[in-house]
Amino acid sequence: MAEGEGTTYHMTPDEFRRWGAEAVEWVARYMEKVEEFPVLSRSAPGDIRRSLPPHPPDRGEPFDAIFRDLDEVIMPGITHWQSPRFFGYFPANVSGPSILGELLSAGLGVQGMLWSTSPACTELETHVLDWLVELFGLPERFLSSGAGGGVIQDSASSAALCALLAARERATEGASNRRGVDRRLTVYTTSQAHSSIEKAVRVAGLGSEALRLVGVDERYSMRPPDLERALEEDVRSGHLPCLVSATVGTTSSNAIDPIAAIGEVCRRHGVWLHVDSAMSGVAAVCPELRFVNDGLEAADSYCVNPHKWMFVNFDCDAFYVADRAALVGALSILPEYLRNTATESGAVIDYRDWQIPLGRRFRALKLWATVRHYGAEGLRHHVRKHVRMAAQLAEQVAADGDFELVAPVPLNLVCFRHRAGDEVNQRILDRLNSSGELFLTHTRLGGALILRMSIGAAATEPRHVEEAWNAIRRVAAEVQRG
Ligand SMILES: *Cc1c(COP(=O)(O)O)cnc(C)c1O
Fold first, then answer.
1. Helix or strand holding residue 427 (H, E)
2. Which of 23, 32, 173, 254 is most deeply packed, by most CB within 10 A?
3. For the chain, which residues score pLDDT lower than 70?
4. C-beta 254 within 6 A of ligand 1
5. Strand locations in 352-466, DSSP E?
């Protein structure tokens, strides 16, 4: 047969139906057996690529060949983030409704850059982000009905960059966009902030030297008087402070900056306050954990990741601003080919003006599906369970003579170490992670190597945490015996 004869080359709807059902079955089976895999992939660098053909196929292949390679080639290179024994970093948990929402979004294949390129894509996003304001008890100034509003970003990193660009525009009264970066601009955070803050400072062209690391107290939280002093010194020496980025729930130790006091300082100095609550902000779904929102009324922008601890697939960061004009002013450019009557009327939101790229996916579908499936009640149930498991583990660590807790445990992260020092802790970590029984990551606090156990996978039950603690003690004893 000559090229193309008798085929469209496309997968027909009937073939899609068949392989789609197979793919859903594959994922359902994965959910059932995810616990059985060694948590950390045992692949060495290059292993996966060596198993792949060096050249792309000339002739299309049947889809079952892809399923075969998924099992044989891809799975050995997977670290099982959805394992109930995954305790590394922060969670990136998912759920059935979110996966289905993602599938539906892919099926629609909508490009939601403007309201007019799919009104439902924009309006569902605005609506669900207003729901989250209610669900989390966030300040009303973040609702779309006032001057502010929310938008879904791919990540907290993008949210931080957008916050900085808006803050920079406000501080320079629009001059940054016209003339380039003002060399006087400065940004404030702490040594405990996420690396994405420094990255944003670099990407925005301010340079790392424009970033001031404000001192922290013994709980690793920002000291507001130190912030005030840093701002005053910079203003005196001719700098132009534009942004303070505070964290609720640092990645290293879950430290919480005192937002109300920081907000007071920011207000006095007219500086934009961004609050990064990437994982911990989700705790606010529980009224008794709303201390994570303390002082938020003072924030100019805020971000929380449903893709970390709220069963929504990566990527989904909810980013809020109190004054959308500053954000849109920093990011809007309207070329002729995007002009349309809805935009000109001013009656609609065009989310392309609220983010760095032009194009955007229909991410609100998975967030909507997840919130509707669980309801506030279901989400609270799981957050409470994770927090309870962390509190129990913290008690056991504190009661153990060989280990010590090294930071408060406000939510679902337990930071601890063996008393015998860095080398022993490193060996415990390496041995545990290579066992495949569980996966932990580390940090450094006060110069010392610290083990972090982050509890937030959807499938984690109390028995997994108990087994992990038993494994930690067993491995510690083995390491000590040499
Ligand atoms: C995880 C995390 C980030 C980065 O999140 P991304 O969405 O992956 O960019 C930023 N800040 C804090 C506090 C985090 O925990």
1. helix 422-435
2. 254
3. 1-2
4. no
5. 403-405, 413-418, 441-445, 448-454
The residue contributing the CA closest to ligand 1 atom 5 is 156
- Separation between Cα atoms, residue 297 and residue 313, nearest integer Å: 29
Angle value at C-alpha 158, between 296 and 292, nearest 5 degrees: 25
Give how far Cα 240 sits from Cα of 162, 171, 187, 213, 306, Å.
18, 7, 9, 16, 34
90 pocket-lining for ligand 1 (C-beta < 6 Å)? yes
Maximum CA pair distance of the chain? 79
Q: Which residue has the tokens 């994982």?
A: 279
Instruction: Give the pLDDT of residue 335.
Output: 84
Phi/psi zone of residue 311: left (φ > 0), alpha (ψ -120 to 50 degrees), beta? left
Identify residue 347 by its one-letter amino acid code: A
Question: Mind listing the domains of the chain with CATH numbers?
Answer: 110-361 (3.40.640.10), 370-481 (3.90.1150.10)
Q: What is the pLDDT of residue 6?
A: 79
Instruction: Please tell me the predicted confidence (pLDDT) of residue 1.
Output: 52
HEC profile for 94-154?
A: CCHHHHHHHHHHHHHCCCCCCHHHCHHHHHHHHHHHHHHHHHHCCCHHHCCCCCCEEEEEC
Q: Is 198 in the pocket of ligand 1 (CB under 6 A)?
A: no
